[in-house]
Structure to design on (68 residues):
C-alpha cells in the first residue's frame, strides 16, 4: 500500500509506522515515515515500542532528538 512520508511528503510503498497522532474523533492516526527519513531522524518503529506505549514518537539512543 502506498503511504505518504510525514517528513519528506513523498509517496512510498515501504512506509514504516512510527507513532500515533492523537485526534479528537477517532483516538489516533498512524504516522508513517519512509525508510531514509526514519533512519535519518532515528525514530523507533511503532512495532518496537514498549508494551503500554501511548504511540508517541520515540527516538533511538544517540539520535539528535534525544539530547544524548
Amino acid at each position: 500500500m502506498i503511504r505518504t512520508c510525514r517528513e519528506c511528503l513523498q509517496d512510498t510503498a515501504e512506509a514504516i509506522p512510527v507513532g500515533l497522532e492523537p485526534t479528537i474523533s477517532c483516538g489516533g492516526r498512524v504516522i508513517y515515515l519512509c525508510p531514509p527519513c526514519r533512519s535519518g531522524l532515528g525514530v523507533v518503529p511503532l512495532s518496537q515500542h514498549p508494551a503500554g506505549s501511548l504511540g508517541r514518537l520515540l527516538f533511538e539512543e544517540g539520535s539528535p532528538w534525544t539530547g544524548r
Notes: The beta strands are 3-4, 11-12, 16-21, 29-33. The chain has one helix and four strands.
